Amino acid sequence: MSDFDYDLFVIGAGSGGVRASRIAASHGARVAVAEEYRVGGTCVIRGCVPKKLLVYGAHFAEDLHDARKFGWDVPECSFNWDVLRDNVLAEVDRLEGLYGQTLGNHKVEVFKTRATIAGPQKVRLADGTELTAERILVATGGWPHVPEFPGSEHAITSNEVFHLETLPKRVVIAGGGYIANEFAGIFNEFGSKVTIVNRGDTILRGYDEQIRDRLLQISMTKGIEFKFNAPFQSITKNDDGTLTVMLEGCDPIQADAVLVAAGRTPNTKGIGLEDVGVELDEHGAIKVDETNQSSVPSIYAVGDVTNRIQLTPVAIREGQAFADSVFGGKPTVVDYKNVPSAVFSHPPIGAVGMTEAEARNKLGSIRVYTSDFRAMKNVLAGRNERALYKMIVNAATDQVVGLHMIGPDAPEILQAAAIAVKAGLTKADFDATVALHPSMAEELVLLK
């Protein structure tokens, strides 16, 4: 018998922690997991899943309008935030139950309480109970970063946005990343007046310049206002509950809600990491090697808490790799090259591989192919909104090293195309593939 209470104790039951727990248990390990909030973590409870449901809801604003051009007699429609909010929260409850059921089916013991690290092989629960484990896995994720300035306590983050009592008529969103642009599209389609405020001079840093410029253009056409190089000075709450937002170099903005989407920081504070010698980087992330092991041999970490690539599927792969390597006898290392990503803006973006700028800097000689077109549906609906597909090719090898898309269903199309990029296929391979017509995706094999 082991001298420890558990073979593995996981702190955090989000995507990475749940996957690691389930797989380790399936390999025969005795596993426990502690979660202080709700099983499912950021993605399921207050992140990508409920947000995507809001995105679906927002799409109906344009779809109902466009349906008239397709022969449907659609009466004037109004939007009810309470109905969508409550239905989304109910779906979150259902998914949380399924995640808990999955852990139970694999005989993973779940402690619904906060746990901290009390030693290299010891954890302490909130009630003072101490438990030992041969290995500890930290999977506590990230937390929204809110810059401190006068009145910043009046702002909300993506944690609270799903629980708003009423739909704000005027929303100021701080940030230029994917969360900011996604919620800007959502609220704009729901009828709110949206202003994005960015302390820098660009949106979606890290995405291809042409693609992000196209989103900016379309967003402005849809009525979203942008203010660049405009740091927050203060937020004042007025007697009627509204907010006055003061920005550097700008006139005051009146708003009903201020959403801060200024990035996420690793959730490592106050859980005892430094006390046992776990090394953190300058951003507070746990330093790990390619096997997800920290500077303390018995302590591992996966997911956003390591600040490698903050994406749910990456956390899941890291959790699987950890469990297979440590408990399954199958050493596995996650490959971080050509990880696809999406921005569920209006319209959405899909991307994989190098941007044009990255490819020029790294490869030197490249070829760039683009297709700038109106989707067939938009043509009949009378929308001037154009999609843009972009392929980056290594001129020396003909290998496709990047794909970047903005337009209807871009993420759905990009997932399959990302396989081709990951596999190292060439432009000639794309050219040799017969087009699937009529579709938007066929543009990928028709690029000239």
Features:
30% helix; globular; alpha/beta; 3 domains; 11 helices; Enolase-like, domain 1; FAD/NAD(P)-binding domain; 5-stranded antiparallel sheet; 448 residues; 7-stranded mixed sheet
Could you describe the 3D structure shown?
It is built from eleven helices and 21 strands. The protein is of the alpha/beta class and about 450 residues long. It folds into three domains: about 5-145 and about 265-325, FAD/NAD(P)-binding domain, CATH 3.50.50; about 150-260, FAD/NAD(P)-binding domain (3-Layer(bba) Sandwich), CATH 3.50.50; about 345-445, 2-Layer Sandwich (Enolase-like, domain 1). Strands 1, 2, 3, 4, 5, 6 and 16 form a seven-stranded mixed β-sheet that branches. Strands 17-18-21-20-19 form a five-stranded antiparallel β-sheet, with helices on both faces.
Radius of gyration: 24 Å
Helix content: 25-40%
Average the pLDDT over all residues and give the rounded result: 97
Given this structure, which CATH class of the largest domain is correct? Alpha Beta
Number of helices: 11
Can you name the CATH architecture of the largest domain? 3-Layer(bba) Sandwich
Describe the sheet with the most strands.
7 strands, mixed
Distance, first to last CA: 66 Å
Structural class: alpha/beta
The CATH homologous superfamily name of the largest domain equals FAD/NAD(P)-binding domain
Proportion of residues in extended strands: 15-25%
Backbone shape: globular
The tally of structural domains comes to 3
Enumerate the spans where pLDDT stays under 50 for 5 or more consecutive residues.
Answer: none
Count of strand segments: 21
CATH topology of the largest domain: FAD/NAD(P)-binding domain
